[in-house]
Amino acid sequence: MKRFLLVPALLMAVGTLTMPVRTNLVPVAHAQQAPADDAALVAKARALHDKVITLDTHVDIGVDNFTATQNYTQDLPNQVNLPKMISGGLDAAFLIVYVGQGRGEEAFTKAGFDAAYKQASDKFDAIHRLTKEIAPDKIGLALTSADVRSIGAAGKKVALIGVENGYPLGDETTAIARVKEFQARGARYLSLAHNGHSQLADSNTGEGDGVWLHKGLSPLGKQVIAELNRVGIMVDISHPSKEANLQAMALSKAPVIASHSGARAMFDHSRNLDDEQLMAVKKNGGVVQAVAFAGYVKVTPPSAERTAALANLAEEYKVPVASLGRGGRGRGGAGGGTAGGTQAPILTDEQRAEMQKKLDELNTKFPAPPRANVKDFVDHLDYIVKKIGIDHVGISSDFDGGGGVDGWNNASETFNVTLELVRRGYTEEQIGKIWSGNLLRVMDQVQQAAQSR
Q1: pLDDT value of position 17
Q2: Phi-psi domain of 290 (left: phi exceeds 0; alpha: psi -120 through 50; beta: other)
Q3: Overall average pLDDT of the 373-386 stretch
Q4: How far apart are CA 310 and CA 293, in angstroms?
């Protein structure tokens, strides 16, 4: 194990946080990687990857993976677990307490809020169970940046907790008290909305239909931001609407984060931040954690010929177009419903084989467009760095919540991100800031601001 420095001033001065040496960091081939990287470049990237704290700010979880018989000590089929973190050299991850919500007024009832609070509690308990009972010798829960460093120095992986969607906070009778409760249970960031307007803030999804509930933040949402500042929880502006985000940054007395959002100038999606929001983050002193979610990074539309051919094949066998997949194996005859809600026909084995042969021929003649890859993801990082500076950008995956790009499809491929950064000429100090230094600086500032209030 290499010498591990625990002097905060020195760490913040150089912007690079050291961790124990990791092994088995073999770059995984992906669409963008050159056929044969220069050996010296790969060795440089591996050595640098060993030194910095690699921190992913958004990893979703399911409570079924936090039991005595099925848990993160095993290499489960999901994208993040301890074996994959060790293999890829991912040191730390924010595990997410996410709860969705219903649509319409029925969502904003005591029963709806109580059910959401119960689901959130179950996820808090699952994370504590992992770090206290299932694998306390392998992973620890960090509440401060100092914890991140000390847990890493002990040779363990690091878990932190983020709350995605403030819906479980409930209404005026419970929300403020639950902010403090969530802080005590380990939450270190919280977003006020997800997909769909919450009782606290409008969501980015309002761009789809032009319907808004609050025109930004609700009065309760503004109170919640004040309480988040008071207790030292970072305000997360991923998912709320642009207006809600601008209002949140104007109100917050501490820096904010976007826990998993890309640059809208690079790909026009409502989940990505436009230049006005990026500049507001810079002014606020916050950080944008660019997200490696292919659908937010880059989407190349299929050719007209491919679209027409898939539609014709689906019509021939009376199956949903979606059942034909994105260039993979056809799933017709699985019994899934069509877009209209009717049952798809059950195909015979002969019909399925025939349809699959035609699909394979179609995919050869009209290939599916390439999926976003590590290069495309780092393009977002590059843009944000150039727009608002190296001190305001970080990295997230949204693994186990739909995230992933070719080359970084799970935690075992984490080295490929560092390799691409080195390939582009980023220095050790800069990569240290991008992987964790900037986020931990904001975390410190938020907690310091809370202590001074």
Answers
A1: 40
A2: beta
A3: 98
A4: 25
Closest CA to 381 of 242, 233, 258: 258
Q: What are phi and psi of 45, to 5 degrees?
A: -65, -40
Q: Give the residue from 350, 365, 380 where a domain finishes.
A: 365
User: Residue written as tokens 């027409």?
Assistant: 308
Within a domain: 134: yes
Same domain, 412 and 318: no
428 within a domain of the structure (yes/no): yes
Given a cut of 70, is residue 124 above it in pLDDT? yes
Contact between residue 253 and residue 233 where contact means Cβ atoms under 8 Å apart: no
N-to-C CA span, the chain: 40
Here the tokens at position 27 are 């770059």
If one counts the domains in the chain, the total is 2
Summarize pLDDT for 53-95 with one digit per residue, the tens: 999 999 999 999 999 999 999 999 999 999 999 999 999 999 9
Determine the structural domain holding residue 101 and report its residue range: 8-299+371-451
Q: What is the dihedral of CA 426, 429, 433, 435, to 10 degrees?
A: 60
Looking at this protein, which amino acid is placed at residue 51?
Answer: K
DSSP, res 95: E
| 178 and 273, same domain (yes or no) | yes
Structure tokens at 65: 């993976």
Residue 217 has pLDDT above 50, yes or no: yes
Is 3 within a domain? Answer: no
Regarding predicted confidence, which is higher, 6 or 206?
Answer: 206
State both tokens at 196.
Answer: 């769909």
What value, to the nearest 5°, has the Cα angle with vertex 296 and ends 163 and 421? 90
**Same domain assignment for residues 79 and 54:** yes
280 pLDDT band, cuts 50/70/90, is: very high
Determine the Cα–Cα distance for residues 99 and 379; give it in Å rounded to an integer: 31
Least confident of 98-107, 167-176, 313-322: 98-107
Mean pLDDT lowest among 144-158, 203-217, 227-241, 343-357: 343-357
- Verify that 213 and 356 share a domain, yes or no: no
Final residue before a domain boundary, out of 333, 348, 365: 365
Q: Are residues 355 and 375 in the same domain?
A: no
Instruction: Answer yes or no: are the C-beta atoms of 201 and 214 closer than 8 Å.
Output: yes
Would residue 400 count as lying in a domain? yes
